[in-house]
Automatic annotation (TrEMBL):
It comes from Micropruina glycogenica. This is Coenzyme A biosynthesis bifunctional protein CoaBC. The chain holds residues 178 to 406 of 406 of the full protein. Its cofactor is FMN; Mg(2+). In the C-terminal section; belongs to the PPC synthetase family. The gene is coaBC. Catalyzes two steps in the biosynthesis of coenzyme A. In the first step cysteine is conjugated to 4'-phosphopantothenate to form 4-phosphopantothenoylcysteine, in the latter compound is decarboxylated to form 4'-phosphopantotheine.
């Protein structure tokens, strides 16, 4: 019912959402990744399409079904994700960085499959990846709304908001969707609980099904779009 009331409030809006966890190659057959399932990003894609948006999903190592109504670009590493997002940015009205990009990548991935050497261990040097969200913010055009996510092991609401405020300021995005992952299972789960903040403070709160949370996030986007920055 509520969905019918809101229907089409993103009519014609071009929304690009990243989803999933990137993979950073150690050698041709091994990679470093994380537990992101991509469900939150895909839920946003689905919800945005229902509300009339033209949706593009940049999917990092996602095997789950991407909604048929959305365009999809598959990527592997954070560097690939950065390239895809930067290419889509000029033609995007809303960008949602729901993906979990690896922060580090092997500095010198091996072209050959790594071999054991006697009973020695393995040390790998990592370098930092591109901060895609920060790059998107630097390239932002007028009226573009950029949304970031932050999963923090905060432990308390006060600490979560403190970490969120700092991250929002550091990234410079319009909205930041915070969730506390101290309890454990969020990754891969159907449910979640989030707090949405902008530079003025808390602008939304949602708990439950990721589809429902997606609509709350889009409500905040619609509200932000209607506000002069
Ligand atoms: N992000 C990104 N590029 C990266 C890392 C993160 O675009 N290389 C985006 C994520 O998609 C998310 C937001 O930045 O929307 C916050 O991610 P998070 O991991 O919380 O922030 P980091 O800057 O990586 O900081 P931390 O050291 O806390 O991991
Ligand atoms: Ca990170």
């Amino acid at each position: 019912v509520t969905r019918a009331v809101r229907a089409r409030d993103l009519d014609g809006v071009r929304l690009t959402v990243s989803a999933g966890g990137t993979r950073e190659a150690l050698d041709p057959v091994r990679y470093l990744s994380n537990a992101s399932s991509g469900r939150m990003g895909l839920a946003i894609a689905r919800a945005a399409a229902l509300r009339g948006a033209d949706v593009t999903v940049v999917a990092a190592a996602i095997t789950a079904d991407v909604p048929g109504s959305a365009d999809v670009q598959h990527v592997t590493s954070t560097a690939d994700l950065a390239d895809a997002m930067m290419a889509l940015a000029p033609s995007s009205d809303v960008i949602v960085m729901a993906a979990a990009p690896a922060d580090f990548t092997p500095a010198d991935p091996s072209a050959q499959k790594l071999k054991k050497s006697g009973d020695a261990g393995l040390s790998v040097e990592f370098s930092q990846t591109t901060d895609v969200l920060a790059a998107l913010v630097r390239a932002r055009h007028d009226d573009q709304v950029i949304v970031g996510f932050a999963a923090e092991t905060a432990g308390s609401r006060e600490r979560l908001l403190e970490l969120g405020r700092a991250k929002l300021a550091r990234k410079g995005c319009d909205l930041l969707v915070l969730n506390d992952v101290s309890g454990g299972a969020v990754f891969g789960a159907a449910d979640n609980a989030v707090t949405i903040v902008d530079s003025t403070g808390v602008v939304g709160e949602a708990a439950g099904d990721k589809n429902l949370i997606a609509h709350r996030i889009l409500d905040a986007v619609v509200h932000t779009k209607g506000t002069t920055r």
